[in-house]
Amino acid sequence: MSLRTRLLAGGFACICSSALAQGPVETIIVTGQRTSDGAPAVNVTAGDAAVRINAVNTEDLLRYAPDLLVRKRHIGDTQDPIATRTSGIGQSARSLIYADGMLLSSPIGNNNSAASPHWGLVAPQDVASVSILYGPFSARYPGGSMGAVVEIATRMPDAFEQSGKALAAWQGFSQYGTQGDYGAWQLQSEIGDRNGPWAWRLGIEHLDSRSQPLSIVTLNRSASPGAAGIAVTGGIADVNRTGAPIAVIGAGGFEHQVQDTPSLKTSYDFSNVQLAYTASLFHQDDTATAQSYLKDAGGAAVYAGSVNIGGYSYTIPASAFSNTVYRWNQTYLAQGLSLKSTAGDWRWKAVISRFDYLADSQRVPTVALPSAGMGGAGTITKMTGTNWTTADADAGITLGDHALSFGAHGEIVALDQNKFNTADWIGGGAGALASRAAGRTSTTALWAEDAWAFAPDWKATIGLRLENWHAYDGVNVSAAPALNMAQPSRDGSYASPKAALRWQADDAISITASYGTAFRMPTVTELYQTVTTGPTLTSPNPDLRPEHADSFDLSAVYALDGTRLRVSLFEEDIADALISQTAPLNGSSTLFSYVQNIDRLRSRGAEAVLQQTLGDVDLQGSATYVDSRILRDTAFAAAVGKVTPQIPRWRATASATWHASDALDLSLAARYESRLYATIDNTDTVTHTWQGFDSFFVMDARARYSFDSHWAAAIGVDNLNNDRYFLFHPFPQRTVTLELSYAP
To answer: Which residue from 21, 270, 351, 418 puts its CA 20 to 30 A from 608's CA?
Structure first.
């Protein structure tokens, strides 16, 4: 029996935990339905997505959601957090993502790398619908809801069924000295059945994907020309995001990912009660390579050493290319067990879930290419043993004009990150410990909410969430600079009130005012991040305070005769915002880069969302304007008054779908985002360069033909207009997808 098979069998035998209860929200449903009261939300159904979206991975289903960006760098990307109207792509902890009660967003950090959501644990064909709630306006959700809550519901069979999909994709990419075609292919298959009270579904997904370069290798140009160094050709003159001259000498992070995701969901219906278990195993082998643009006189590629490019002298360190080369092995297991009522006056549900890093090992060379391709010294970073467990229980009942609900929440998060030196980065064993970051956080909460229809056409919702947070067992070890520290424990208790008032003015118009307070606790990575060296030092900061958000939303909705229009005004004020910046630490004159509390941010904006059906054509569109500013920053005065990093001023989407016949659907869509800043003092004035953040306008097209009630084929083109833009990384250019699917 193979290791992968043993892990799958062992994982399905375990039972572990997480949950999310549905809160009352005014919802914009793609199908035109809606629920009662609260803040703006959207719901994307599987049927709508199949027609409109070239969905390879589950996160693609959110592509045209109003004011929501999934930072997906390529097909199969595992570092793809979401950004919302008041939170950026580096603030993953400000949003919560669940699938059947399992927490897929990573509570270990607040970034767009290791703390990105684990979308890969759910296959697109498993999804029945995706609901998105904007803002912290329900007492049911923790402080991470200040950005958005995404809840994925998967489907269960009503009878014996089989389904499958085959997909292929091609991207043509041209940037700097890189020109090439990068492809992906995917196979998905499922089988399921229902026999009386028992139902089950078993699925498997396999993805093989190759990416465009995710990194560009650059050198800072000296102030004056020089004659030193070996003359090389192929360097490209450019400027960095602050406008300083650089030489572009290559690219790296060409990822080849092979992913396998088996999943199981089963349920049993007792009398008025349903028991369900879900398990999903994600395994990935990821190999990244690099390309040098530089050639010596003999035509050989140059990766390191003293060189001369266009009359300027440079020294290329071994790490310049080696840092973009790696081998990454990951195996994750997510499990959930739920028990809920299916009848009776009381509505109740209990869910427990667990997410385990069964294996997570990234190998990186420290010796220079090309010799590193044969082995040599390097590092091994392991996060094996990192995990989180969540448990939720809630109940509700309607008594006259009151809909009462209440519940409890518990969560434990454990980080274990170790970096070792190794004599052979490709296959050698772990040597001396270079650094370690470990720690735990736990949260317990009680909440209650009352939706009171106190008068005809009026409803008030009042809620309160009480939370107790504890951070403990924090450890930071570093060989260079020398550090071995047990961090102090932290505790805190917080109250988060919520309120909403809804007026149904007439059959077509409703107006809702919402207010919510949220405390987003520091994550274990923010508290105990690994110490590193470089131009600046990276240091842990165990004294961080929680982010405290006060959010307001005023929304008016018009819905009549196939037209639905929502207009919203919103504001979010955050005290003690957690953002990484460079500043002195502990009285030292040395600059450290670490997460700090920014005293106050404020974001104000307006949003419009339109849905309309005109005969055989469905139209959808949204536009959002945000003015987000840093109002106070004691540690860095130059940031005061500047635009908040990672939040664009404008974001918009539009799509049109023509149901040309019962069998043929044609869709055209567009996405736009204005430029944004990455630095808190807004010094990154150049956007179209490596590490810059461009504005972008991207058009997508899709044609889908149904041969019968089961078989369908589709062709799609993403980035049809081939916009070449950077969001720190070079983003995908024109990509064509072909798919053939069989559905029950």
So the answer is: 21
